[in-house]
Design goal:
Layout (H helix, E strand, L loop, with lengths): L5 E2 L5 E2 L8 E6 L7 E5 L10 E5 L6 H15 L2 E5 L25 H16 L6 E6 L1 H12 L4 E7 L30 H4 L4 E7 L2 E2 L2 E2 L14 H17 L6 E7 L5 H7 L2 H10 L8 E3 L5 E3 L8 E4 L4 H4 L3 H35 E17 L4 E6 L6 E2 L4 E5 L2 H75 L5 H72 L1 E3 L4 E6 L6 E2 L4 E18 L11 E6 L2 E17 L21 E8 L11 E7 L4
Parallel strand pairs: 1-3, 2-3, 5-6, 5-7, 7-8, 8-9, 9-12
Antiparallel strand pairs: 3-4, 4-6, 10-11, 12-15, 13-14, 16-23, 16-27, 17-19, 17-22, 18-21, 19-20, 21-23, 23-26, 24-25, 24-27, 25-26
Helix pairs in contact: 1-7, 10-11
Length: 687
């Protein structure tokens, strides 16, 4: 069996990519917990539309569950999940983690299943709020208690050979009753809710052989022999609890004729997987399987076959057999049932064919929006990621931070260098000003000395000229004998004195002139120092640029949302390395959404911009949205990477090219988000 399924080996564990179709995949949760599970996504029906969870017995063979149910899930278009509760982590998974000895309780198996469902919903882009549940033996006890503890998540459950049950008795502690049990579980049971969950109890019956009862083979690895009385007591207790609350009882009981050695033998001897899915999801299109209860009312249930038969609940065989009147009614009603079933089958087909004749239908459609992969403009190590998937963010909000100690040190260093250069420039300005004042004062003093020296030269020269005239006069008088010769010698002495003073005055004037020249040279040297000020100012400008760059790099370690939106996923976790261009988180920004539908190239001529479209979403099956074709693609999916199209060519039945069509919704719902799958019908152009 399962010849059409692809089954990965135990070692082939896929931890990251979304589950593919028509494969039994062995996956590991991405949260690092080490929890694994098997998943099968059908290629038919609505992928992910209905989730069926099959729980193993204490053999803990989850692969066995996946293999047994994959074919029938393909026919029903249901996604199959088979969790694996390892003995080391979940020694008492059938009690949701409760044990008589707290030290042996292990982890919460129901929380592990919730984590599996949440991850699958995120990866596959589907809703996992409601599931259909099946369990065998110990797995049946888990399924029963999960349905009672989490009724809001269970759309229906089949409990096979549970052997022990949790009764709706508020006076007994869990797991025998619904009174609070061990404090580690913290379970709250609400009968008003779990009594509304449809549940079918399957148990083994005893075949009659020549008037004697045959022994029921004990279920392998079970804790005891199947006890039909206990099963019936539990069903009766559930019905009584429903009656006490004036609720319709949704719990029914079925018996399986034949020995039940194990889950594998159970499935291989007959059509148990088909019967379980039929009970939960209804019969496939065709004639429904109808049984009659003791009161003669119709009951859609399990199909019978030669090797595995089911009996309805009965107190004894006589009361379970329909009477002659009921049999006659069944024979008379059969033609009407056949006609009604045929009409019910053909009418939707006719309506669908008419719709297809007037519309281009695309099932390869998905909600699109602007997704921004936000990263850092620096290389570094991620310090914190401050948002998580699903969080709403505002423009400019901090979403992540890099380790910033190195960048902060560079800011401190460049600021210190800038401060030092600024102080040097300030000191140089003060020194130049002080030197300028000193030189000005010195120049004034030298100019005054030069003027005084020049005046002294003029005075001494005048005195020398006068002394010369006196010498000439005295010599003339001496030669005529009018005055003694002594007078001439005195005049000559005074002349020599005046000439000496003149020479001194001239030397002093020359020195004063040299001092003036020196002061002027020093003044010109001050101009050179002022030129150096310009060099210092350039250095300061360079350091200011370095400070600005260091501060920008420090600010760059803070990653902010470029626009308001929501977080799609975290790509890099704290402690991970990142580089320029590598995204850290993925954001849905702007809030603008549209539907991208991919149509066959044969239908492109029937579609134009402005064509009216209707859109339905698998997440909102009861709502229909209207819109118009906004634009047509300019290339086929052949030119695009597989990540840009909902279904790559390698996975399609036809390999004809597809063209993307953008559809703008007239009134998009606020709860739509990118990645939701859709079915689009576009009105064909008039001929």
């Amino acid at each position: 069996m399962n010849s059409t399924r692809t089954l990965l080996n135990d070692g082939d564990i896929d931890e990251s990519s979304p589950p593919g179709e028509k494969q039994i995949l062995h996956r590991m949760l991405q949260d690092g917990s080490g929890q694994d599970y098997f998943v099968y996504r059908p290629g038919s029906g609505v992928p992910g539309g209905r989730l069926f969870v099959a729980v193993h017995d204490i053999s803990r063979n989850a692969r066995e569950q996946a293999t047994a149910f994959s074919d029938v899930c393909e026919r029903y278009g249901a996604t199959l999940i088979a969790p694996h509760f390892a003995a080391s982590r979940y020694p008492n998974y059938q009690r949701l983690g409760r044990s008589r000895h707290a030290i042996d309780s292990g982890k919460r198996a129901d929380e592990a299943l919730d984590a599996i469902l949440q991850e699958f919903a995120t990866l596959a882009g589907v809703s996992a709020e409601r599931i259909y549940l099946f369990g065998y033996a110990a797995g049946a006890r888990f399924a029963l208690r999960y349905a009672m503890a989490h009724p809001e998540r269970v759309a229906g459950a089949v409990i096979a050979c549970a052997e022990s049950y949790t009764f709706p008795n508020p006076d007994k502690r869990f797991p025998q009753g619904i009174a609070p049990g061990h404090k580690r579980l913290d379970l709250q049971f609400n009968p008003e809710q779990f009594l509304r969950v449809p549940m079918i109890v399957l148990d083994s019956a005893q075949d009659e052989d020549n008037g004697s009862r045959r022994r029921i083979v004990q279920v392998v690895r079970s804790s005891g022999k199947p006890d039909r009385n206990k099963s019936r007591k539990w069903v009766s207790a559930m019905r009584s609890a429903a009656d006490a609350r004036q609720l319709d009882s949704l719990v029914s009981y079925r018996e399986i004729v034949g020995p039940l050695d194990s889950m594998a033998a159970f499935a291989e001897r007959g059509t148990l997987p088909d019967l379980v899915l039929e009970s939960l999801l209804g019969p496939l299109p065709g004639l429904p399987v109808v049984f009659f209860n003791r009161n003669g009312s119709a009951d859609h249930g399990f199909e019978r076959n030669s090797s595995l038969t089911f009996r309805l609940e009965a107190e004894d065989e006589e009361s379970s057999r329909p009477n002659t009147v009921t049999a006659n009614l069944k024979r008379k009603a059969l033609p009407a049932v056949l006609v009604g079933t045929l009409l019910a089958f053909l009418l939707p087909l006719g309506l669908w064919a008419n719709y297809r004749s007037t519309h281009v239908v695309s099932r390869d459609a998905v909600v699109r929006s602007h997704i921004a992969d936000v990263g850092a403009r620096l290389d570094g190590v991620v310090k914190t990621v401050e948002v998580d998937a699903g969080d709403r963010v505002q423009a400019g909000q901090v979403v992540a931070r890099l380790e910033d100690s190195l960048y902060a040190a560079r800011v401190t260093q460049t600021r210190s260098q800038l401060e030092k250069a600024s102080r040097e420039l300030e000191v140089e300005h003060l020194a130049i000003e002080n030197e300028r004042q000193r030189l000005a004062s010195s120049l004034r003093g030298v100019s005054a000395d030069l003027s005084a020296a020049r005046a002294a030269v003029q005075a001494s020269e005048s005195r020398a000229e006068e002394a010369m005239r006196q010498v000439e006069l005295q010599r003339s008088l001496v030669s005529r004998g009018l005055v003694p010769a002594e007078r001439a010698r005195t005049a000559e002495t005074e002349l020599r004195t005046a000439q000496a003073l003149t020479a001194k005055a001239r030397a002093e004037a020359s020195a004063a002139s040299a001092g003036e020249d020196l002061a002027q040279v020093e003044s010109r040297g001050l101009g050179v120092r002022e030129k150096r000020v310009s060099v210092l100012e350039s250095e300061i400008a360079t350091l200011q640029a370095k400070v600005a760059m260091a501060e920008a790099n420090l600010e760059g370690t803070i990653i902010r949302a470029p626009d308001s939106g929501a977080v799609v996923r975290r790509i890099v976790q704290p402690g991970g390395s990142t580089s320029v261009g590598q995204p850290i988180i993925s954001l849905w920004v702007g809030g603008d959404i549209w539907v991208e539908a991919w149509v066959d190239e044969d239908d492109l001529g029937n579609v134009s911009v402005g064509s009216v479209a209707t859109v339905t979403f698998k997440s909102y099956p009861d709502r229909e949205f209207s819109g118009v074709v906004e634009s047509l693609g300019v290339s086929t999916d052949i030119e695009l990477p597989d990540t840009e199209v909902p279904q790559p060519r390698s996975k399609r039945m036809r390999d004809a090219p597809l063209i993307g069509v953008r559809i703008r919704l007239d009134d998009p719902a606020t709860d739509l988000f990118p990645g939701l799958s859709a079915v689009v019908g576009i009105s064909k152009k008039a001929d």
